[in-house]
Amino acid sequence: VTVVTAYKQLAAEGFVVLRPGAGTFVADLPLLPTPRDLSARALSPWAQRALALSVANGKPRHVQIDFGFGRTFPQHFPYDTWRKLLARYLSTDDVMLARYGSPAGFQPLRVALAAHLRRVRGVNCAPEQVIIVSGVQQAIDIIARLLIRPGDEVLVETPGYMEAYNLLRVYGAVLHGLPVDDEGFPVERIPPESAARLAFVTPANQFPHGGTLTLERRLWLLAWARRADAYILEDDYDGELRYDGHSATALQGIDDAGRVIYLGTFSKVLFPALRLAYVVLPTTLIPPFLATKRLIDRGSPTLTQAAIGDFMAEGYFDRHLHQLRETYGRRRALLATGLQQVLGERVHFSAVAAGLHIMVQLPTNADEAQLIQRAAEQFSLGLYPAAPYHLQPGAPPAILLGFSGVREEDIAPGVAQLAQLLTEG
Amino acid sequence: VTVVTAYKQLAAEGFVVLRPGAGTFVADLPLLPTPRDLSARALSPWAQRALALSVANGKPRHVQIDFGFGRTFPQHFPYDTWRKLLARYLSTDDVMLARYGSPAGFQPLRVALAAHLRRVRGVNCAPEQVIIVSGVQQAIDIIARLLIRPGDEVLVETPGYMEAYNLLRVYGAVLHGLPVDDEGFPVERIPPESAARLAFVTPANQFPHGGTLTLERRLWLLAWARRADAYILEDDYDGELRYDGHSATALQGIDDAGRVIYLGTFSKVLFPALRLAYVVLPTTLIPPFLATKRLIDRGSPTLTQAAIGDFMAEGYFDRHLHQLRETYGRRRALLATGLQQVLGERVHFSAVAAGLHIMVQLPTNADEAQLIQRAAEQFSLGLYPAAPYHLQPGAPPAILLGFSGVREEDIAPGVAQLAQLLTEG
Q1: What is the mean pLDDT of residues A396-410?
Q2: How far is A112 from chain B, CA to nearest CA, in Å?
Q3: Is the pLDDT of residue B2 over 50?
Q4: What is the mean pLDDT of chain B?
Q5: Which residue, among B44, B51, B142, would best test binding to A if mutated, counting the most A CBs under 10 Å from its CB?
Q6: Contacts of B141 in chain A (CB under 8 A)
Q7: Do B102 and A57 touch (CB under 8 A)?
Q8: pLDDT value at position A82?
Q9: Pick among B18, B31, B149, B152 to test the A interface (most A CBs inside 10 A)
Q10: How many angstroms away from the CA of B195 is the closest CA of chain A?
Q11: ipTM above 0.90?
Q12: How many cross-chain Cβ pairs, A to B, lie less than 8 Å apart?
C-alpha cells in the first residue's frame, strides 16, 4: 500500500517515468536536474536540452501480477554454457583481454553476426558493415552526430520509441510524427514537400503499437529515401521474436541504394546488462561512424564479445532463440486468446504475433491513467500506459501488456481483473 | 624486413598513427575516410571534423626489443581470482545480469572506488559523485557536450594527451597549449585575459613529458578556475603507479570550490579491454552528466563492474597494485639507470618515478623521426616519437620509451642500441 500511495503521489507530481523495454518506474528524485546551482554560462545548449529531455531511471513498482514489458527471463538462459565460453578466454595464455580491441568490434563476433543476420533477418551485409556498439542508444547517438544539424526534420512513428526521439531532439532535430496503423508507418502520408533527411522506423514489429510494415510501404519508403537523399534508421529491436512462422525480413535486405541503417540488440534476446548491440551500415557511412566511435569509445569489452561470438558460431544462440520463441509465443497466445475471449470487441490489438508485449486499444470512453491506477490499487495489477509513447497528448486510450515476464498461470487471472476494471469503469 | 619496409613506406605517406597507452600503429588503410562517396549535404559539420581528427587503429609493429608504452603485462594478473569473482555472478539465481543497471554505474563498485580514491589518491568524494564510464574518452565526450560551445577556449598541456584534444576540437574547442616543464603545467603563464572555461591537466605525472605539478601551481590553478568560473579536467590516468613512495595526491583533493572533474581508468592497472573508467564529478555537474549518459548509454556491463567491485572490496586490487609497483618500478629503475650511465648528459628526462614510460629529450641536433626509423631498420628496436603529442611542429627532439611491456633483460641491450644510434647519428 505504501508503494502504491507513493506512486500515486509521484504520478500526481509528474515524476512517473517510463522506459520501453523496462516497464514503469518512479523517478529517482535526488538525481533530478538542478541547473540553478550552475552559473549561467556553465552549461552548453546541448546540455540544457539533455537535462530537459532525459528521463531518470527509477525503482520498479512491486505488484502481484505484472504485465511489465520488455522483461527477459534469465531462467531460460543456458548459464552453464555461458560460463564455459567465458572461461575459455580467461586464461593467462591469452593476452587478448589485456589489449585494446577494435572500436568496430571483435572480428569473430562481427563475422558471426553478419552470417546470423543474413540467415535469420535477410540482412544484406558483409562483416565490415557490422559495428558493435554498447547499445542502440549509442548507435543513434553516433548517427545523430553524423547526420543531424539543428533544425533538421526527422520522420518518426507515433506512438514510437520515445527514448530514441528524445536523443534526436537533443541534437536539435525537429520530429515529424506520422500516426501508425496496424501495418506500421504510413509512408503514403509523408508530405511531398518534406525536407527530412532521416526516418526512424520499426518495420518488423512497430513499437509499441505492433504490426508489420507491408511490402508496398517498404518499397515506397525506400523510393522516398533515394529521391530525398535521406537515410532510414531501421530499429529491428525484436526482429528475432516472431511466433507465427511468418518472419518479416529486414527492410535493409531489399535496399539496393545504401539508404538503410539497421539496428539490432542483444538486450531483448540475451541480457540488457550485457550492453551489446550492433549496427549494420551502408558502406559510405562506415568511415565517419568509425571515426566518431574511435574518438568517443575504444570499443566494447572483448571478453563478452568473444563469448557471444562463440555462442552464435556454435549454435547455442539458435537453440536459445528457438526456446524463447516457444516460451514467449505460448505466453503471447494465452494473453491474446484471453483478451479475445473475455473482452472481445471491447478491445483491439495488432494480430501480428511478435515481440514482448501487446498494445491494447481500450474502448474510447476509457480513462487510461485512471484504469492503471485502479488496477494497482484494487488488484495490485501492473498495467502500463501507452500515452508516453505518443508525440502528442490526446491519443486514444491504450495500455501495454508485456507477456515475456509474466507467469503462464497469471495471465488468465490478470485478464479477468482487467475485464472487471473495464466493466466497473 | 617486410613489416619494416611497409612501415617505412606508410610513414613516408603519413599513415603512421600513435595512440597513447598503446604504442605506434600503422593506420588501417581500408578504413580511412572516404567522404567523397557521400552526397554534399549528407554529413554534419561535427562529422566532418571527426573525420579530419580521428586517428584509425592499426596493426602494431613487430620488433625485437620494443619500448612500446602503456602496455600492461597480463601475466601479472590474478586470473584465478578473477575467474572466481566472475563465476559468483554467473548463477541462474541472480537476475542482476538480466536487468538494465544504473547508467551511473553498479553501486557497490562506486562505493569501493570512492573509498579507494579517498585512501590512495586523496580524492574528496562520496560514492554519488563517482560515475562509471566505458573509458576516459566517454567521460571527456560527455564533459565536452556539457561545457563546450564551438569557439570556446580550452587550456591544455603541450606535449599532451592528443586523443582528448582531438575530441575537444571536434566539439569546436579552440585549444590554447602551454608548454610544460619538469613540474608540469605552467599555470603562471595562463594569460590574464584568457576566456578559457576548461583546462585539461595531468597533475600527478604529466603525459607524456613526466613530472608532477607543484603545490604552488596546484593552488594557483584552483584559484584561476574559481576566478574564471572555469572547470579543471584532471586526468589521473596512472596516479596509482608511483614508484618512489612520494605519492602526489590528486588535485581534486584540495579543491574546495567544486571546480575539478577527476578522471581515472582501469585500463592501465587492470586491462584496457575491460572498458571501464570513472569520473568524479563536482556535485553540480552530476545531474547534467547523468542526464546525458542516460540518453546515450544505459551503463556498463554489470558483470564486470560487480567483479571489479569485489576485487577492490576484498583487497585483491591493493595486492595487485603493490605487485605492479614492484615490477614496473624495477623496470623503470633499470631503464633510468641505464640511460644515465650510458647516455649521461646527452639526454634529459623527468626524475619522477611514475607511470609506464620515460620521455627522453634527445640532443638538440638529433633527428627524432630518422632515429626511430634507423632503430627499426638497424636493430629492429621499437622507439616511439614525441612529436605527435605536441600541438605545434618543431618541438625539441624526444622519444618515448615504455618500460612496462619490456622484459628486464632487454632493457640494457635496448639502451646500448639507442646509444649507438645516437653516436652514429
Answers
A1: 94
A2: 20
A3: no
A4: 86
A5: B44
A6: 295-297
A7: yes
A8: 84
A9: B31
A10: 12
A11: no
A12: 257
Q: Which residues of chain B make contact with A146, given a CB cutoff of 8 A?
A: 43-44, 46-47, 50
A255 and A233 Cβ atoms separated by less than 8 Å: no
Give the three-class secondary structure for B165: helix
Helices (H) and strands (E) in chain B, counts: 12, 15
A53 pLDDT tier (thresholds 50, 70, 90): confident
Reported as a single tens digit per residue, the pLDDT across B36-45 is: 455 545 788 8
Q: Chain B residues with CB inside 8 Å of A275's CB?
A: 297-301
Alpha carbon distances (Å) from A340 to A108, A360, A424? 46, 11, 19
Residue B59: CB atoms within 10 A of its CB come to 12
pLDDT tens digits, one per residue of A312-371: 999 999 999 999 999 999 999 999 999 999 999 999 999 999 999 999 999 999 999 999
Instruction: Specify the pLDDT at position A41.
Output: 56
Q: Chain A partners of B299 at a C-beta cutoff of 8 Å?
A: 275
Q: Residue A255: which of A287, A288, A289, A280 has the closest Cα?
A: A280
Q: Is B300's CB within 8 Å of A50's CB?
A: no
Query: Averaged over B340-345, what is the pLDDT?
Result: 96
Cβ distance of A79 and B91 shorter than 8 Å? yes
User: A197: which chain B residues are within 8 Å (Cβ-Cβ)?
Assistant: 41
Give me the pLDDT at residue A337, please: 97
Mean pLDDT to the nearest integer, A36-46 = 66
Contacts of A246 (CB under 8 A, 6+ apart): none
Q: Show residues of chain B in contact with A303, CB under 8 Å.
A: 273, 304
Of A135, A287, A294, the CB nearest to B298: A135
Q: What distance in Å separates residue A22's CA from the closest CA in chain B? A: 8
Residues of B in contact with A97 (CB under 8 A): 74, 271, 273-274
Please give the backbone phi and psi of residue B244, each rounded to the nearest 5 degrees, phi first: -105, 10
Q: Which tens digit of pLDDT belongs to each residue from A270-322?
A: 877 788 999 999 999 999 999 999 999 888 888 889 999 999 999 999 999 99
- Does the pLDDT value for residue B288 go beyond 50? yes
B90/chain A closest Cα distance in angstroms: 7
Task: For residue B241, give the nearest of B383, B402, B407 by alpha carbon.
Answer: B402
Residue of A80, A106, A267, A275 for testing the chain B interface, max B β-carbons within 10 Å: A275
Residues of A in contact with B297 (CB under 8 A): 134-135, 137-138, 141, 275
Distance from CA of B75 to the nearest CA of A (A): 6
Distance of alpha carbon A250 from alpha carbon A346, whole angstroms: 33
The 3 state secondary structure assigned to chain A is: CHHHHHHHHHHHHCCEEEECCCEEEEECHHHCCCHHHCCCCCCCHHHHHHHHHCCCCEEECCCCEECCCCCCCHHHCCHHHHHHHHHHCCCCCCHHHHCCCCCCCCHHHHHHHHHHHHHHHCCCCCHHHEEEECCHHHHHHHHHHHHCCCCCEEEEEECCCHHHHHHHHHCCCEEEEEECECCECCHHHCCCCCCCCEEEECCCCCCCCCCCCCHHHHHHHHHHHHHHCCEEEEECCCCCCECCCCCCCCHHHHCCCCCEEEEEECCCCCCHHHCCEEEECCHHHHHHHHHHHHHHCCCCCHHHHHHHHHHHHCCHHHHHHHHHHHHHHHHHHHHHHHHHHHHHHHCECCCCCECCEEEEECCCCCCHHHHHHHHHHHHCEECEECHHHCCCCCCCCEEEEECCCCCHHHHHHHHHHHHHHHHHC
Predicted confidence band of residue A16 (pLDDT cuts 50, 70, 90): very low
Q: Which of A53, A54, A107, A270 to mutate to test the interface with B (most CBs of B within 10 A)?
A: A54
